[in-house]
Amino acid sequence: MKHIFKKYEFASQEVAETRIAALPSDDEGNPTHRHTVVKLGYLWTTTPEYDEEGNISIEGVQSDKYSVDVLWNVAEITSVDAEAVLDEDDMVVTPAETSIAYPYGWASKEIEVEGNGVHTFAGWSFS
């Protein structure tokens, strides 16, 4: 099973939750897709610093964007644009043409980060 690892930032948690909820699910809201979604939340752009007693010595700053990582299941987001052409022996003459289409509202929120950022999926490297 092939996967694609992407990182996203949304204007708010509510927008992110709406996009996540729009992924395929059953009548009770349980996911029926095989994508792995990790809600990272509002990440620190400046990490707070603490003194020896655990008191904040330098205030941190959080991003105003809500971060989400997704490990997309390629089979579920791939469309066949043109079927493969086979000869009389069922050998491929022209392979199928496919394209990947991310669900509505995801592609425009994709971001690039240096390295893996604050999160990665086991066995996956973002960069």
Essential attributes:
elongated; two-stranded antiparallel sheet; 4-stranded antiparallel sheet; 127 residues
Fold topology:
Elements: E1 3-10, H1 13-21, E2 36-41, E3 44-46, E4 49-50, E5 56-58, E6 61-62, E7 66-73, H2 74-77, E8 78-82, E9 85-86, E10 92-94, E11 97-100, E12 110-111
Antiparallel strand pairs: 1-7, 1-12, 2-7, 3-6, 4-5, 8-11, 9-10
Radius of gyration: 20 Å
Q: N-to-C terminal Cα separation, in Å?
A: 20 Å
Shape: elongated
**Main structural class:** mainly beta
Low-confidence stretches: none
Q: State the strand order across the main sheet.
A: 2-7-1-12
The proportion of residues in beta strands is: 35-45%
Total beta-strand segments? 12
Helix content: 10-25%
Helices and strands, in order, run as: EHEEEEEEHEEEEE
Average pLDDT taken over every residue: 91
Largest sheet: 4 strands, antiparallel
Can you count the helices?
2
Give a short overview:
This protein is mainly beta and 127 residues long.
Polypeptide structure, described:
With 127 residues, the protein is mainly beta. The chain has a domain at 3-74 and 103-111. Helices cover 10% and strands 38% of the residues. It has two helices and twelve strands; from the N terminus they run βαββββββαβββββ. The chain has a four-stranded antiparallel beta sheet. A two-stranded antiparallel ribbon has the order 3-6. A hairpin with a 5-residue loop joins strand 4 (49-50) and strand 5. The radius of gyration is 20 Å and the shape is elongated. The mean pLDDT is 91.
